[in-house]
Task: inverse folding
């Protein structure tokens, strides 16, 4: 068995184990998807593996997975009062809670379809967790928070933007801004990356995108956050583009184009990208509001240093933080976070190298971090954003307008 065949077979086994686990937990619709996926992977594996014993084993497993999926489907499609037979020791509270929530079987199937791929979370990020970017925060509030929190203000010609694009250098807080906005307006937050939406299985990517938007409508008010959107919305017609990628872009364009929010059911799409110039023009036009998220300014950099050293004994004064902000010009928020993590580890590293941590029962005192530690680390940890790239962001913002 080649290494590729082996990986494919192990992937099938792993997927089948997930299906069995979901089955035992009473999450039958998710289990159906996993059983079917495991069967598909094994069929793909059989195309390349000619070992008769292995093929016989795979055929047997495929039949078992397909049969179990059929049984689950038939019972789920029966009367609402019917209950699937459960494995020993598994309670029936899951189905009961779904029934009490008033979710139909069709709606629950859509929810289950994206639950294993798309992260639906309740972010706990506040505006105070993001240092600086006051103008950007205000723009995001107007575009996302206010339409959901105060829908009565957005009637008639004053309607909310359906598509918002955050662009700028990596590590400047675009994802945090999205989470903070969702937290403040109590919206259902859907986080979907390109890896979540793209699948090697024919037609599955389009199905996932369609299901994502349908579930978002069901759970409105909703905010769909698509990180690194340039990876799924590159310019069409380029030589490296495959037919599958073209269909995914078309499906995504169609969903955003047909996005309609009502007074009581607000649905917004928020995209984030480090490479706005790679986005297809048709997709770019769907994002009516475009917000430039720049590198942090002096005040913001001082605040980021404070946030990422919170809870650690420190000998730094407010003046020291200002000095660090001056020394870190050109650093992104992520760059500063990396500097702080390195500095915080210095006292521990010193104790370890001196052998004081070898005795687990011995109590040790960790020294405070100081300005000297930061100066030393800033000489080693350099900013990741090149000045030429910053100019490219500014030029793009001027050309396409920060709407």
Result:
């Amino acid at each position: 068995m080649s290494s590729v065949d082996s990986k494919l077979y192990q992937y099938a086994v792993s997927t089948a184990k997930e299906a069995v686990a979901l089955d035992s937990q009473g999450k039958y619709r998710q289990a159906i998807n996993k059983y079917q996926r495991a069967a598909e992977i094994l069929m793909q594996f059989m195309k390349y593996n000619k070992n008769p014993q292995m093929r016989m084993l795979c055929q047997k497993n495929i039949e078992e997975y397909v049969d179990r999926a059929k049984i689950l489907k038939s019972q789920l499609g029966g009367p609402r009062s019917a209950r699937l037979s459960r494995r020993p020791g598994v309670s029936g509270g899951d189905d009961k809670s779904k029934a009490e929530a008033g979710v139909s079987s069709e709606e629950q199937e859509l929810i289950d379809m994206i639950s294993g791929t798309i992260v639906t979370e309740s972010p706990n990020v506040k505006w105070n967790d993001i240092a600086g970017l006051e103008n950007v925060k205000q723009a995001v509030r107007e575009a996302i928070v206010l339409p959901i929190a105060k829908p009565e203000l957005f009637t008639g010609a004053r309607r909310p933007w359906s598509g918002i694009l955050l662009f700028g250098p990596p590590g400047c807080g675009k994802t945090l801004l999205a989470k903070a906005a969702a937290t403040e307006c109590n919206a259902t937050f859907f986080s979907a990356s390109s890896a979540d939406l793209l699948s090697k299985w024919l037609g599955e990517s389009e199905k996932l995108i369609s299901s994502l938007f349908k579930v978002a409508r069901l759970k409105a008010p909703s905010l769909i956050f698509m990180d690194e959107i340039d990876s799924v919305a590159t310019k069409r017609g380029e030589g490296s583009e495959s037919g599958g990628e073209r269909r995914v872009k078309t499906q995504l364009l169609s969903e955003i184009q047909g996005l309609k929010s009502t007074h009581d059911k607000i649905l917004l799409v928020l995209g984030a990208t480090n490479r706005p110039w790679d986005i297809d023009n048709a997709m770019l036009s769907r994002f009516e509001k475009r917000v430039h998220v720049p590198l942090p300014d002096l005040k913001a950099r001082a605040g980021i240093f404070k946030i990422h050293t919170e809870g650690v004994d420190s000998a730094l004064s407010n003046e020291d933080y200002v000095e660090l902000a001056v020394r870190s010009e050109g650093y992104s928020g992520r760059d500063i976070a990396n500097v702080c993590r390195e500095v915080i580890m210095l006292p521990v590293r010193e104790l370890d190298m001196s052998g004081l941590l070898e005795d687990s029962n011995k109590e040790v005192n960790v020294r405070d971090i100081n300005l000297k530690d930061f100066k030393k680390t800033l000489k080693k940890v350099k900013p990741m954003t090149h000045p030429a790239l910053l100019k490219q962001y500014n030029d793009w913002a001027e050309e396409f307008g920060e709407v």
